[in-house]
Amino acid sequence: xxxxxxxxxxxxxxxxxxxxxxxxxxxxxxxxxxxxxxxxxxxxxxxxxxxxxxxxxxxxxxxxxxxxxxxxxxxxxxxxxxxxxxxxxxxxxxxxxxxxxxxxxxxxxxxxxxxxxxxxxxxxxxxxxxxxxxxxxxxxxxxxxxxxxxxxxxxxxxxxxxxxxxxxxxxxxxxxxxxxxxxxxxxxxxxxxxxxxxxxxxxxxxxxxxxxxxxxxxxxxxxxxxxxxxxxxxxxxxxxxxxxxxxxxxxxxxxxxxxxxxxxxxxxxxxxxxxxxxxxxxxxxxxxxxxxxxxxxxxxxxxxxxxxxxxxxxxxxxxxxxxxxxxxxxxxxxxxxxxxxxxxxxxxxxxxxxxxxxxxxxx
Length: 363
Ligand SMILES: NC(=O)c1ccc[n+]([C@@H]2O[C@H](COP(=O)([O-])OP(=O)(O)OC[C@H]3O[C@@H](n4cnc5c(N)ncnc54)[C@H](O)[C@@H]3O)[C@@H](O)[C@H]2O)c1
Ligand SMILES: [Zn+2]
Ligand SMILES: [Zn+2]
Hints:
Blueprint: H1 2-10, E1 14-20, E2 23-28, E3 39-48, H2 51-59, E4 61-62, E5 65-66, E6 71-72, E7 76-84, E8 96-99, E9 102-103, H3 109-112, E10 123-124, E11 137-141, E12 145-147, H4 154-158, H5 160-173, E13 180-184, H6 188-199, E14 204-209, H7 212-221, E15 225-228, H8 234-244, E16 251-256, H9 261-270, E17 271-279, H10 291-296, E18 300-303, H11 311-320, E19 330-334, H12 339-347, E20 353-357
Parallel strand pairs: 13-14, 13-16, 14-15, 16-17, 17-18, 19-20
Antiparallel strand pairs: 1-2, 1-6, 3-7, 3-11, 3-20, 4-5, 7-8, 8-12, 9-10
Helix pairs in contact: 2-12, 5-6, 5-11, 8-9
This protein binds nicotinamide-adenine-dinucleotide (NAD) and zinc ion (2 copies).
C-alpha cells in the first residue's frame, strides 16, 4: 500500500482544458481523491480523440450542450488503477482498465429498465458541465472500469470506447448470420460497425464513403465491398450500391455512421423491403427524410446512442479474441504536450485515430 501511495503522489494531474472555442491550455489541476468506497482512482495511459471532442474545441457546443466553464476534453481512455475503494472487489492497483466514460444515476426508469445510456441524469466525460479524461488522474465507479485481458494493450483499451459505440449500433440493428449490411460512412465508427457486423456473421458488408482512402481502410479491416458515393440523387446512389454489391432486393440492414443528409436519404433506398435501418451518425438535427420509402417498405428504423449494458464487455471480447483488430485504426500516438496539434490533425482528416499519451506516460 505504501508503494502505491508513493506512486500516486508522483502522478501529475496535468490536464488539457478547453477554455472557449479554439482556446485551450494545459493546467495542473487538483488531484482527485476517492470519495466513494465503490470508486477507483485511475492514472490515464492513452486517450483517443473523437469527433465530438473536436467539435467542442472548434465550436464550444454540441446542440444544447454548451461549454460555459473551462472543461477538460477527452473521453476515449484506458488507464491503470492506482487506488481502489474499500468496497471494490474486482479491481486492484496495477490493473489495466478500459474506462466507460458515462455514469448514469442508476435510479431512474431508464436505468432500472436496463437502458442506462438513455439516463437523463447521465454524467458523461467531456460533455458539459463534466470534465473529460485528458488528464493525469481520474476517479470512476469501479463497475464502469473494465479490466483488460493480458493480451489486450492499453492502446487497444482506449479504442474500446468507439468499438462499444459500434457494438451498440449493431445490436440495435439486430444483425443475423448470413445477412447483408451496408454501412454509410467509413470513419472510425463506420469501419468498426462493419467489423462488428462481420463478427456477428454478416456475409456481405458494404462500406460507403465519399473519400477513397477511407474505403481502402474499410476494405482492409472488414468490408467485403466498398462504394464511393457520388453527389447524385440518393435513389441513383442507392441503385449503384445495390448493383455493385449484388443486392437486387436491397440490404437486410443499413447503418448510417456518417450523419450526412445525402447518406441518410440513400440508406432508405438501399434497405430492402422489411429491412432495418439504424441511425448512428450525428449530423444536422433536422433533415429531409424519405419517410414514404420507410412506410412503404415497412422499414424498422431505430436510433442508437452511446452504449449500454454488456457493450463494453463484448467490445473487449471482440478485441481479445482477435475478431476486431482495433490496433489498425491507430495512425499515431503523440505525447500529452502535443494534444492541440493532435486535435488539428483530426480536424484536417489526416488520421483515422490518433491517441494522446497520458501526461505521466513515457513514449
Ligand atoms: N450514436 C452515437 O452514440 C455516436 C457516438 C460516437 C459518434 N457518433 C457519430 O457517428 C458518426 C461517425 O463517427 P466517426 O468518429 O466515424 O466520424 P467521422 O467524421 O470520422 O466519419 C464520418 C465519415 O462519413 C463520411 N461521409 C460524409 N458524407 C458522406 C456521405 N454523403 N456518404 C457516405 N459517407 C459520408 C466521411 O467522409 C467520414 O469518413 C459521426 O456523425 C459521430 O458524430 C455517434
Ligand atoms: Zn467518442
Ligand atoms: Zn438514470
